[in-house]
Structures are given as C-alpha cells and as structure tokens.
Design a protein that fits this description.
Order of helices and strands: EHEHEHEHEHEHEHEHHEHHEH
Strand content: 5-15%
Strand order of the largest sheet: 1-2-10-7-8-9
Bound molecules: pyridoxal-5'-phosphate
Structural class: alpha/beta
Number of helices: 12
Number of strands: 10
Length: 349
C-alpha cells in the first residue's frame, strides 16, 4: 500500500502512451519489449524530470518561493525542463552548469554570452529562450564546490529580496521520488489494460530518482517486477548507496517510524554500457540508435536512453531475459540532446 501522495502541480501530460515494439522484439528474438513513452510527457517540459518537478515545484510554491535554482551538465534535460516549468509558472530560474573539460578551473563562471555557437544549441539554447540565468563552471570546480555554488547563488537572490527553492541534480531526492512512485501506479494500469504481467522494467539511471521511485512504487504495490537501472555514469556501488539514501529520507518523511523499506529493497543496476564516460558515445551505441529509429520511429538520445536501450538489446542477446515474456523499457526523454551528436550519428549512416 502506498501512503497518501503529497500535493503536486499538474504539469505533465499523463498517462503517457504504453506500446509494444513488435518489429525490434522480433528481430532480437527475445521477450516482447514494451515502451513507456515518458518522452511524451510534454514538449519543452518533457521527459522523466517533469514527473519529479510536479512534486518539487508544488513544494516550492507552498513555501512561497519565487526563484528556482538547480544544476546539471550543459545539455541537462533536467535543467531545460526546470527552466521551462519556471517560465510557465512565472518564477525565476538560475542554472548552475558544468562546462566542458577544456575549461580552466576558476571561480568565475561563463555565461551564455561566452558560449560558442557549438555550445549554444539543444537544451542550453532552450534554457536561454525560457529566460533562465546560466552560470557555467569548469567540471573540476563544479564537482569540488557544488554545495557552495548553490549557497552563493541563493545568497545573491535572497539579498535581492527573492525566495529560493533549490533542487538537487536530476531532481532526485525524497520529494522527487514521488514522480516515479506515481509512474509505477500508472504502469500497473498499463499492464492491466494490455493484459500482461511484465517481469522486468529497464530505465536509464543518472541521478537514480527514476530507478528509485519505480523500485519503491512497485515494492509497496506488491508487484514483483525487476526494476533494472542501466547506469550512464558512476558505478553499481554508487547507485546502491544513492538510492538507499534517497529512499531512507523518503520513508522517514512519509512512512511510519521503523519501516525497513530502504534497507530491504533490492536494487538492480547494470553498469556495463557507459562506454568511455558520461555523455560520451561509441559506435555500437550510435548504430543502435539508428537501428531503433529506422525500425520503430522511436528516437533515443546518446547520453541516457540510447545507452540504456543498447544495454537491453545486448542483455537480451546474452540470454539474461530468457524465460521472460514481456519486458518494459521506459523512454525517459532526452530528444533535444540528440542534436549536439549530429556529426557522430551521421558517421554511421
Ligand atoms: C535524467 C535523465 C535520465 C536519468 O534519470 P534519473 O532519474 O536521473 O536517474 C534518463 N533519461 C533522460 C533522458 C534523462 O534526462
């Protein structure tokens, strides 16, 4: 049983479509693959982050905040969704972004004016159109001082009489978790409508709120489906810790005392398809993206969904899903992140 859901804003187009990918399932010769189309939660405000933002922004509004601050990579889908939601709600938005490796570590952030035309595209371009303020730091500086960067920017706004609401990386925390707890409930309806009982569900994992929320949701709803996170960065051990931390904070806030959910939950992460690193592609990945788009008209991005789906196809070929009849893949969005990879995708035409 789920506890009562907290207040949320209705920002996403829900429920999203749920459909079988029959052609590629047959080509792979494994289980039937079903797609949960969370790339279609909206247009600018699309992808998985909007499910989390429905709860996060409701909390921001209940605290009378007028400015939202969050962080991510330069092509962050989460930052773009946050910038669009803030504009839609009439709030200010400041994005703390991680620049390219070539940037020298310095306190002094770059702004949009300093971006090259190559950088000013995809999600970053949309952030700017939606009126977000952007501060780009070198990766070294960003990782070493992220907490201080948040407090520094909060102080600037609060000195100007604003009220800030800060959202951590990917919107993954105790409140953000609700987004995919609710999605688990929605998926159980999808399964009933399609008359199936899938035994595994696969999603890309970056900040782990999607994997963690689905894990909590299905466990509390007593559906034994195996929630598999395909890591796009970090390691199995990292995500084990991160998910337990978020779930622990969630259960302390929303469940009766002494609940054991966080320690008892089984967490299943695969980290074999990251390739050379976060947001770095590889040949088999680009080929897989082209193959799926051509056969099903479904476009995945090279940073998240492409790696997760490529991982699923490889695991099917290796027999990991032998004996499974139906498995679900969550399309978590990222479409705008395809365009910065144009020249690499073109190489494999
Ligand atoms: C952020 C993101 C993910 C990862 O979700 P987390 O909840 O952060 O693990 C997957 N796909 C896309 C397109 C994303 O933007």
């Amino acid at each position: 049983m789920l506890p009562n859901f907290p207040a949320k804003l209705n920002l996403a187009n829900l429920p999203t479509e749920f459909l079988p990918l029959d052609r590629v399932s047959e080509l792979l010769g494994g289980p039937r693959i079903w797609l949960k189309c969370d790339d279609q939660t909206g247009s600018l405000v699309s992808g998985n982050k909007i499910r989390k933002l429905e709860y996060l922004m409701a909390e921001a509004q209940s605290k009378n905040c007028d400015t939202v601050i969050t962080c991510g990579g330069m092509q962050s889908n989460h930052c773009r969704a946050t910038a669009a939601v803030a504009a839609r709600l009439g709030m200010g938005c400041h994005l703390i972004l991680r620049g390219s490796k070539e940037m020298k570590p310095s306190d002094n952030p770059l702004s949009i004016e300093n971006c090259t035309d190559d950088q000013y595209q995809g999600n970053l371009l949309l952030d700017d159109l939606c009126g977000a303020e952007v501060s780009i730091y070198s990766p070294v500086h960003y990782f070493a001082h992220l907490e201080q960067l948040f407090s520094r920017h909060e102080n600037v706004y609060e000195d100007a009489g604003k009220y800030c609401y800060s959202i951590p990386t990917g919107g993954s925390n105790a409140i953000g978790l609700w987004g995919y707890i609710e999605a688990a409930r929605e998926l159980i309806d999808d399964f009933a409508n399609a008359s199936i009982s899938p035994t595994a569900i696969v999603c890309a994992t970056g900040s782990a709120g999607t994997q963690g929320g689905l894990g909590v949701g299905f466990q509390l709803l007593e559906n034994p489906i195996d929630v598999i996170g395909m890591a796009v960065c970090d390691s199995i051990a990292y995500f084990d810790r991160k998910i337990r931390e978020d779930v622990d904070a969630w259960q302390k806030r929303y469940l009766p005392e002494n609940t054991q959910l966080a320690s008892d939950m089984s967490i299943h992460t695969i980290d074999s398809y990251i390739g050379p690193g976060y947001a770095i592609g590889y040949e088999a990945l680009f080929k897989c993206i082209r193959w799926l788009a051509k056969n099903e008209g479904v476009v995945l991005d090279p940073v998240y969904t492409g790696k997760a789906f490529y991982g699923l196809t490889e695991e099917i070929k290796r027999g990991k899903f032998d004996g499974h009849t139906d498995v679900v893949f969550v399309h978590t969005g990222g479409t705008y992140g395809v365009f910065p990879f144009g020249s690499e995708l073109k190489c494999y035409a």
